[in-house]
Amino acid sequence: MDNFIFTMFEGLPRQGPGSNACTRKAFLMLSALPARPEFLDIGCGTGMQTVELARTCPDCRITAVDVHQPYLDDLTRSAASAGVGERITTVRASMDDLPFEGETFDVLWAEGSIFVIGFAEGLASWRRLLSPGGYLCLTEAVWFTENPSPEAAAFWNECYPAIKTVPETRAIAEDAGYEVVATFPLPASAWWDDYYTPLIKRLEELRPTVAGNLGAEALVEFAEREIAIYREHAAEYGYEFFVLRKKG
Question: What is the mean pLDDT of residues 164-183?
Answer without folding.
Answer: 98
